[in-house]
Amino acid sequence: MALLRPCTTSAGFMAVPERSRRVDMPGLKSALPEHGFEVLRDARVLLLVRREVDATVYHTGKVLLKTTDADLAEEAYAALRPLLESHWT
């Protein structure tokens, strides 16, 4: 589970894992399209992805969801979380 809170530096919400994690970014990148996510950019330590909401997925497991709608952020993270968890190292 992660804490979802408003981001202080941008218009969005940040999901922060309860404890620090590392994400298998190549594995996650290959799994995302199968689950309806479009990979917009791969910067090795972060992925820019889109489904209903644009999101930045960091190699540490943090996710920035680019929406000011809290309910939409929750839904977007709920769709992404199982993929993240299955690619933690």
Index terms:
globular; alpha+beta; 27% helix; 89 residues; single chain; TATA-Binding Protein; six-stranded antiparallel β-sheet
Write out the strand line-up for the largest beta sheet, numbering strands in chain order: 1-2-6-5-4-3
CATH-defined superfamily: TATA-Binding Protein
Order of helices and strands: EEHEEEEH
Sheet with the most strands, sense and barrel status: 6 strands, antiparallel
Compute the number of strand runs.
6
Q: How many discrete structural domains?
A: 1
> What would you say the CATH architecture is?
2-Layer Sandwich
Determine the mean pLDDT: 93
Estimate what percentage of residues fall within beta strands.
Answer: 25-35%
> Can you count the helices?
2
CATH first level: which class?
Alpha Beta
Distance between the termini: 16 Å
Computed Rg: 12 Å
Commentary on this structure:
The structure is a single chain. This protein is α+β, with helices and mostly antiparallel strands and 89 residues long. The protein has one domain (2-86): TATA-Binding Protein, CATH 3.30.310. Helix content is 27%, strand content 31%. It contains 2 helices and 6 strands, in the order E-E-H-E-E-E-E-H. It has helices at residues 25-31, 70-86, and strands at 2-6, 13-17, 38-42, 46-50, 54-58, 63-65. A 6-stranded antiparallel sheet has the order 1-2-6-5-4-3, with helices on one face. Strand 3 (38-42) and strand 4 form a beta hairpin. The two termini are 16 Å apart. The model has no long low-confidence stretch (mean pLDDT 93).
